[in-house]
Specification:
The complex is a heterodimer of chains A (232) and B (186).
Chain A (H helix, E strand, L loop, with lengths): L23 E14 L2 E17 L12 H23 L7 E8 L5 H8 L2 H10 L7 E6 L6 E7 L10 E5 L9 E9 L19 H11 L1 H9 L2
Parallel strand pairs in A: 3-4
Antiparallel strand pairs in A: 1-2, 2-7, 3-5, 3-7, 5-6
Helix pairs in contact in A: 1-3, 4-5
Chain B lengths: L5 E14 L2 E17 L12 H23 L5 E8 L5 H8 L2 H11 L7 E5 L5 E8 L10 E6 L8 E9 L16
Helix pairs in contact in B: 1-3
Classes of the chains: A alpha+beta (232), B alpha+beta (186).
Pfam families (chain B): AA_synth
Organism (chain B): Streptomyces axinellae
InterPro entries (chain B): AA_synth_put, BB2672
């Protein structure tokens, strides 16, 4: 091999170089800053960020592995830290973040349970929650999909999960991940509510039951309701 | 037409930690910042003279996006590129108008200490289209190790009367680049 074959000057791996021990292949960080809606500046400019990590599936090609715990304990906290570090750096620290969520995409050769293993245990959730200064349960989504699938990551308030103004979602995508033997582990965060939130909250809602809705419909269109009842 | 109507900006940072099973050291970083704006010529039929819109909007876009993408990369820029995706009711020429002018590109050249032409992608597409921004070396477009692309998708943009304008910057060439230089074949 001539010297010119490695023009970057970086270290050239030999023909039988061992694979890297790093299970993480690629990390994509995204942030959308919402400034306007339908031609009008938004009430509350909000930033929503997400981080997606394409990581080797530690259970790939091993059939149904009965005990997932050893790999969860090793990998989940590492992923939570990598993600939380990027979310806080991008959004201005944990105090700027008011809402969070997480998601797992399992590559096509994996088991859905593999993604669940990495996001639904304290080894991921507690680390993420602590680093983002939250207390709520963390909103989530999960699916098995081909590389390049766009992940919709739901978020809700990090200390008051039932705060309706903060129910939202953001999207992230890694063009070539997850490969069939990879997982795409993601989390998202927002610096505020939906930018034009105006649909009330549990404390301001009227009581709504099916019976209430039927009587409302009858008041709004009595003839139609009578006609329908007449056919019974 | 004199002010830019901005709906949102989208920032992407891509890090390659391993490629071909080998560690990439330092980690290969590429950043993209895109602005979703109203097409300044939307609803006007065929506009013969685009210059007034270019003069009004292109400098604002360059001044907005150039510092953002350099900051998002967080390292000296070695390769760069740009793109325009026009919503379905517009002309591709509208996107080209906003990016193929020194009034736009010089903001990025200055922020990146660059001298070469900016490689570009321009197309018309529905919201959520995937577009690839080509990047080349910032001072010598023949440096083969720095020929690369970055993929972008914004789920809800461009709407039919919008344009997405994006800048891309990379801190290095391709991860694991090992092709012989152009001059070795000349």
């Amino acid at each position: 091999m001539s010297a010119s074959a490695n023009p970057s000057g970086g270290p050239s791996a030999g023909p039988s170089a061992p694979p890297s021990g790093n299970p993480i292949r690629r990390i994509v960080t995204s942030c959308e800053e919402l400034a306007g809606e339908l031609g009008t500046p938004v009430r509350t400019p909000v930033r929503r960020g997400a981080v997606a990590v394409a990581v080797r599936n530690p259970w790939a090609r091993r059939g149904i592995v009965a005990d997932l715990q050893p790999e969860v304990e090793e990998l989940a906290p590492l992923l939570a830290r990598e993600i939380a570090d990027r979310l806080t750096a991008m959004l201005g620290g944990p105090e700027s973040i008011t809402a969070f969520g997480k998601a797992a995409l399992v590559g096509l050769d994996g088991e859905a349970e593999h993604g669940d293993a990495l996001i639904h245990t304290p080894y991921f959730g507690n680390v993420l929650r602590e680093l983002l200064h939250g207390t709520s349960i963390i909103a989530f989504s999960e699916e098995r999909a081909a590389a390049g699938t766009t992940v919709t990551v739901p978020v809700w308030h990090k200390t008051e999960a039932a705060t309706r103004s903060h129910y939202a979602a953001t999207q992230i995508r890694v063009p070539d991940g997850p490969r069939p033997d990879e997982l795409l582990i993601t989390a998202a965060a927002a610096t505020g509510p939906r930018p034009n939130a105006r649909i009330g909250d549990r404390r301001t809602d009227p009581v709504v039951t099916l019976r209430d809705l039927q009587s409302t419909a009858a008041q709004a269109a009595p003839e139609a309701t009578e006609a329908r009842e007449g056919t019974r | 037409m004199t002010t830019m109507n901005l709906r949102k900006t989208v920032t992407l940072v891509d890090e390659i930690h391993t490629e071909g099973g080998q560690a990439v050291s330092p980690v290969a970083r590429t950043a993209v910042v895109a602005a979703v704006i109203d097409n300044p010529w939307a609803g006007q039929g065929f506009v013969a003279d685009l210059a007034p819109g270019i003069d009004a909007i292109a400098p604002q876009l360059g001044a907005l996006l150039a510092p953002l993408v350099v900051k998002a990369l967080g390292s000296p820029v070695e390769a760069y590129g740009k793109g325009a995706v026009v919503g379905l009711d517009g002309e591709v020429e509208h996107g080209s108008a906003l990016i193929h002018t020194l009034k736009f590109g010089d903001h990025f050249r200055e922020a990146a200490s660059a001298t070469t032409l900016l490689p570009a992608v321009e197309k018309r597409a529905a919201a959520g289209t995937v577009f690839d921004i080509p990047l080349k070396h910032i001072t010598d477009a023949t440096v083969r190790s720095h020929h690369q692309s970055v993929e972008v998708r914004i789920p809800d943009a461009p709407r039919a009367d919008e344009i997405v304008i994006a800048l891309a910057a990379a801190a290095q060439g391709r991860p694991q680049a090992r092709l012989a230089p152009l001059k070795s074949e000349q």
